[in-house]
Design a protein that fits this description.
352 residues, alpha+beta, Tetrahydropterin Synthase, Chain A
Length: 352
Amino acid sequence: MTAAAPMPQAAQVPDGPVAQSVRIAFRALYAVMLLLAVGWATGNIRQVPPGSQAVILRLGAVAGVQQAGLVLAWPRPLDRVVLLPGGDRQMELPVVAGSARAPGIEDEVSRMAGDRPPEEAGAYLTGDGGVVLLSARLTWRIADAATYYVTADHVAPALRRLFLAAAASVAARHDLDDFMVVRPEHAADPQAQAQRAAMRGDLVRAVNARLQALDRAGSGLGVEVVRADVDALLPPVAKQAFDHVLVASQVAEQGLAAARTDALRTAQSADRDRDRLLAAAHAAAAELLSTAHNDTAAIAALERDMNPAARPNLLDQTWRERIAGVLHQASVVSAVDARAVSRMILPGGGTR
């Protein structure tokens, strides 16, 4: 037998420039695809900055909430990370009344004078029968990020409606003085200031109570009101009346102050006159007492030294001492014997 002939070896294709270019292109495309795959796999690994929080959505549903820090989530479209403000960050919302005011709040005079209340202020009836215009700015924060993400588009209008309802109920429980300074004498009253602060606290509690009721009903907003800054105004018609009362009160206070000043001045003048009269009376009384003491000093001394036996002699002596001074004052003296029987006719003045 003869041996079989060997099989011919496959001919080797030469490695040309085209083949090398294709091979390099496939390698570059592989590297790019690998980088894209790595980027896609790590696309949802991110850092949540301080003051923020992240809501993780898995296939469109909320899967969790991550606070500040590193977030590990599945790549898109499996997971999606949405950044929201943190629970400690406070945001403001101006409240607009959004309804037409009742007639009588303003008149033609106030409109022509340009005294018109802000459009965002709503009219509310107070507990004492007054009317107050309120505009507010609510400060709120996110209490439940998952719920807030679902209801974010409805938070602002819902908060406005809740505030309007809460303001109507709170205004009915408070007097007009609890919203603003109506009486000037109560402007610096600590109790009045405490009542206005309590009114703002009641507004915040009333809005939060309605938010909690929505949470219990399964329709929560995921927010909490922190503070309510309220601006209270009087209707233009009532403001004009209060301005007139204020002017009259100021005029009356000025009159009372002037009357008090005049009364104080009169009282001071009367006190000075009284002191002067008392001083003059005391001086005159002291002078009269001194003169009386001088006039009666001799008689008082005679009374102290006199005894019954020597009484006639002392009296005669005193009479002779005093009569001499009296006789020296007369230009002519006529002496008559008291024991003589003769009569003496003395001239007298004519009668009328």
